[in-house]
Amino acid sequence: REIGRDVEMRVVVDIIAGASAGGINGTMLARALSHDLPMNALRDLWLDNADVTILLAPDARAGTWSKWFLKPFLWAMTRTGSFRAISDLEVRQKLSLFVRSRWFRPPLDGRVMARLMYEAVVLMGAAKSSRASLLPSGQSLDLFVTLTDYYGYQQLVQIHDPPLIYERDHHHILHFTYRRHSNGEVESDFGLDNAPGLAFAARATSSFPGAFPPARIVEMNEVVLQRNGSWPRRAEFIAKSFPNHLRAGIDPTTVSFLDGSVLNNRPFQEAISAIHGRPAFREIDRRLVYIDPHPVPAVLPRQHVVPGFFTMLRGALSDIPSSQPVIDELTRVIEFNEQVRRLRAIVDSARPHINQLVGKVVTTTFDQPISSEELRAWREQVNSHVARDAGFAYQAYVRLKLASVRAFGAELIVKLRGVPAQSPLSRVVSEIIDAWALHKGIVYERAESEVLEFESQTAEHLPAWVKYLLAFDVKYRVRRMHFLITGQNRLYQLIDEDRFAGLDPLVIDQLKREFYGRLDALRRREDAGFYSREVRELAADIFPAAPSGAEVRHLQAYAATFVEQHIAKLDLLIEQLAVETDLNASTREIDDLLASLDPAKWHPEARREVFVNYLGFPFWDVLTFPMTRAREMGELNEILIDRISPQDARTLSGFDGVESLKGIAFGHFAAFLSRAYRENDYLLGRLHALDRLIDIVCDAAGVDPKADGIDVLASVHEPQNDEENDSADDSRDDGRDDASAEVNTQLRQQPITDQGADDSDADIGNEPVTRATDDFSGKPSRDQTNQQNDENRFIRHVFLPFGDTCVADPGRSTILNAWPADQHNRRKTSSKLTRPR
User: Fold this and answer.
1) pTM score > 0.90 for this model?
2) What are phi and psi for residue 214, nearest 5 degrees?
3) Which end of the chain is more exposed for a tag (fewer CB within 10 A), N or C?
4) Cβ-contact 670, 662 below 8 angstroms
């Protein structure tokens, strides 16, 4: 509230990536955000059902005398204090049950795990309406969940000698999307019609090797039938998620998948790749927030003992691969940010010169109406100036543009063919398009450079290379749209200056939204689905299969021969692609949009900024395109990286640090042995996350909680408006005073004393007891309604502030949302949390 008095801020989560337990949480979070759904089922999944007594397969469960010879070892570990966690009676009992259960086959039941995942997804319920969502209109959400394909699939790779080899790939990513278009249309993979697909992602990404059997789609089919459910989008899910398996002739329903953390425990790259080009209709502070519940300590021992045989095997096969650092991914983000800063410096330093150039071309003042025809004429004059003034740099620029457009055409044909971008056919198509361009005379000539003043194909007698650029240079127009959006962001920074007095931020927002709409239309031209069936069939007819190894060995000669043999069909394909791409229409739409800016609503100086950015972009592109050709830069927004971990919590005195977590013992398996441990980590995880999220929001707003006197703890308790004051929870004590606040953690008392060796064999029941989950309505009981309303309000006002952000969850995190703890069967303890000074 205190931040909101000075800064209007909205925080949106739009990318989530996770592996293992983080994949489970990410899946449920993405579904909740997409359709505004409660997450009680996820809380119950972890607290009630993430227990060995429930997950053990019935035929694997140890009896009273199973492997009785292990009991003395457990007794000895208890007496010697070798493992502190074994002093807990519940842990000792369940550890005894687990280690004495079945060996050499997975002891945990995969079908039970699949059923729990399916029930958790379904019990979240259906959206109240087609537009119910926590995402703004026009926004999208992407979820990436990592799996490990045990057998993998073969991929053909082109090298020098031998020309073609086969490699086996075991990595796999499941990608789910939610798109909420500005016109209200919704495309979602998170509805109940795809609940089994989401449940399979959660089951497969957490299929820890040796503990669970591999996850397979046929297993999920059985669960759906047993629960009387349905999977209307099963075929669509398989086609979208397993194209490589289908191309290789492998039935995806029978493929065995293991825990995603085996090969990709920290899916940063997928999240980072999805950030570029994300829409933001307001000024943006883009954050990549990752959760690391067990970070590397600041100081590591300088001397190490030689690892033993079993320790070395476990480290090589499990611990080391799943804990590889993300330094490479973070370094790429740092390099990206440095390049953004360099490009900004170039753009800013060139602005005065480009202002003068545009001022010489524009023949009217910016407080007067401007027609589309005037804009078009001015744009062509600026293009002509750029061609003359850039000198030798312009020659290199045009040659790079031609190479880029040829590559775009080849990539588009590969997409039309439906083959991977890294396949040998992709390389062959690229070489053939280059050979075709050379055959057609699409080669840059310096004497003809000034003809680029035209940006449409209406002009007569244009050289072939110019026509080709005008027909297929989608990337140029995408860069221009990004630059115009960057210009809108710059206006936000300038709006408080006297020369922009009276400028309404809403008109900036509206134009920025229009720019994103045009950018989306351009982006569609990069997808195979944009083009007609006839074009796709023609591409398949021309490129039916990859060439043989002998043909690939002499690829340039093969490409030249191919062009001669198929020149008529290639000409027809390129011509039809140009017609359907229709970049002339795209350019006219931008001219018409900018000509429609109302001088009565737009301050003349702000209108001038918009036109300078549009008309002067060719000059900026000459300067920056050679630097950005290798990667898309988007709107020149830096990506700030923030971490959520126990080490980073600053407010929770006495509850910070990895030492406060209980479930990390036994290689992160201890939480499966104790509900008390799960409750401890579940609550502390949310408190740590809340602490850090408040830090992130304050930093984004330019606020220092200490210097500005913001009561961090009070922000959790204060109602957000008068309506909330009158809600069912208005009698709740906010627990604040000037120095500290009392927080009831409501954790069950944990036994810490030694109960004796006999207790370790206490009969904890061979029949698991679990909460009934047969009610698939997804509707809360009357007593639960107020609780869910309170929980949803907490999510909206406290936890959705993740930032217009990527949340990359690197593995065994169970901390993505906050929910009040269950009230039954727990003892209250009080802990003092002090505000930062």
Assistant:
1) no
2) -60, 150
3) C
4) yes
